[in-house]
Amino acid sequence: MKIFSHLKKTVLGVAAGLTVLTSGAAFFALHNGNETVQAATVSNVNNSEVSLQAASAIAIDATTGQVLYAKNADAVRPTASMSKLMTIYLVLDAIKDNKLKWDQKITPSEGAVKVSQNTKYSNVPLKADHEYTVRSLYRAMVIYSANGAAMALGDQISGTQQKFIDLMRSEAKKMGLATAEFYTSNGLDNGDVGSDKYQGASDSAMNKMSAADVALLSQRLLKDHPEVLKTTSITKAKFDNGDTQTNMENWNWMLKGLSKAYAALPVDGLKTGTSDAAGANFAATVNKDGHRLITVVMGARHNNDQDTARFEQTQKLMSYAYNNYTYTNIKSGQSFKKDSQLPVYHGKELNVATKTKGGTHIWLQKGVDAASLSGKVQGNKKLYKKGGLQAPLKKGQTVGTYQLTLKDQPLVYVNGATGFKTQAVTKANVKKANIFVIAWRAVKGLF
Questions:
Q1: What span, in angstroms and rounded, lies between the C-alpha atoms of 96 and 110?
Q2: What is the dihedral of CA 52, 416, 223, 123, to 10 degrees?
Q3: Which of 51, 103, 145, 171 is deepest in the core (most CB within 10 A)?
Q4: Which residues pair with 280 in a beta bridge?
C-alpha cells in the first residue's frame, strides 16, 4: 500500500426538498452578535441535485456556515491527512500565543525522523542531527503533507505525541467537533507511527470525522488564522535538508497553474488526504467574486496516485453552489409588520418598536426573493420586570433577539441548526411614566 496521507453573523438557508437527519448536536457560535440555534447534525441537503461520486460531501458559506449542499455529511469516515488541519490550527495558535516562533530551531525526535524516512508516506526526509526552523517544517506539512514534519511540530508544542493528541482532542471538543477522533498528529494509522502511537488504542485506530465537522474545522481555521491561505496557496517550494533539497508540489492540484485548476474557480486551499481506508479526501476553499465557500469531499475514487477524481467532484460541487444560488446582503436595521414590538414596564409608552442590529448575507436559491425574510422578536428576560422591559430605555439599546426565517427556504446550518438569531435594538427612547400614570395603570391592570 502506498499512502500519501493528505488529506455562522449567521445563516439562512437552503432549498426545498432537503432532508436533515439527526445525529449528535454541535453548537457553533458566530460573530457580530449573531448566533445559530442548536439542533441536529446535517446529513443530506439537495444531495439529489448533484450526481456526486463520493461517499460524503458538504458545501458551506465560509463565514456564516450556511449549507448549500450535503451528502451523508454526518457520516464518520477516516480523514487521513485532512487531520493535519487541526495540527495546522494548533501551530498557528502557538505562533499567535508566542509559544512558537517562525525562526525557532527544532531538532526532530527519533520517532519523527523514522516516520519521515518512510517512502510509503508523503514526506520530506528529516535528520536526527539537524535543526529545522518552525517555518520550514510548517511549510512542508501544509504544502507537501509531510508526516514527519507534523510530528516534529507537535512534539515541540506539547513535548510528546501523546500530549499533542490530547491537545488536538481538547481543541476539537472546544470547537464542537462531536465526531472527531484523533490518534496521530498527521493522519497515519496509530500503528504507523511506531513508538509514538497513542497508548491504549489499537494499531489500526485511525483519525476520523464527518464531512460536516471537517467543514466546521476548516471554517474555524479560516476565521481564526486567515494567514493560512498564504501557505496553502503555494503551488511549489523546496525543502532544505542541509546537504539536499526536496522539491515539494502541492497535493492540491486545483491551485492555479496545477493540473486540475479551473479558471472560474480560484481555489486557494486547504488540505487533501488519502489512504486505502479513506479513499481520496479534499477539504477545499474558493473565493469567487469575494464570496468564499468551503467544500469537503470524502471517499472519492482513488485508483492510483495520479487519480484526479476528488478534484473533479470538488469542481462539480463548487460549480453547483455558485450557479444555483444568489449571494444576497441583508441590511441591518430591519423591522417587520408583525412581532417587532416588546412590552415596556412603567414606560411612557406600553410598547417599544425594535429592529435588527447588524447585517448578514445569505445564499438564495434561484427564484427565492429576499423580501420573504420575516422575523419575530424575543425580549431579554434579564431586562424584564413583571412581564415587560423596565423603563427608561435608550434608542439603540440591545433588548433581545430576532428569530429570523425565510418563507421560501428552510434554514440549514453546518452544525445542523434550524434557526437564526440576531440582536434586537430599540428604535426610540422610552421615558419612564410619571407616578399618576403608573397608579392609573395599576387600577386598570396595566403596566
A1: 28
A2: -50
A3: 145
A4: 274, 300
Residue 216: burial class (beta carbons within 10 Å; 0-12, 13-18, 19+)? buried
User: Considering just the CA atoms, what is the radius of gyration of the chain in Å?
Assistant: 25
Q: pLDDT (tens digit, 9 = 90+) per residue, 194-216?
A: 999 999 999 999 999 999 999 99
Q: Which of 34, 296, 30, 26 is nearest to 174 (CA)?
A: 26
As a whole number of angstroms, the longest Cα–Cα distance in the chain is: 93
C-alpha cell at 61: 458559506
Which is it for strands 245-249 and 388-390: parallel, antiparallel or unpaired? unpaired
Domains detected in the chain: 54-325 (3.40.710.10), 331-437 (2.60.410.10)
135 contacts 102 by C-beta, under 8 angstroms: yes
Q: Compute the distance between CA of residue 23 and CA of residue 43 in angstroms, rounded to an integer.
A: 8
Count the Cβ atoms, other than its own, within 10 Å of residue 440. 11
Q: What is the mean pLDDT of residues 82-90?
A: 98
Q: List pLDDT tens digits, range 347-371.
A: 999 999 999 998 888 899 988 888 8
Cβ(154)–Cβ(185) under 8 Å?
A: yes
d(CA 246, CA 265): 29
Name the pTM for this structure: 0.85
H or E element at residue 291 = strand 291-300
Task: Round to whole Å and give the CA distance between 145 and 342.
Answer: 55
Q: Catalytic amino acids? A: 81, 84, 145
Which residues, other chains included, contact 356 with Cβ-Cβ below 8 Å and sequence gap of 6+? 332, 333, 334, 335, 375, 402, 404, 422, 423, 424, 425
271 appears as a binding residue in the annotation: yes
Q: What's the angle, vertex CA 116, arms to CA 110 and CA 122, rounded to 5?
A: 160
DSSP 180: -
pLDDT tens by residue, 377-424: 999 999 999 899 999 999 999 999 988 888 888 778 887 666 677 899
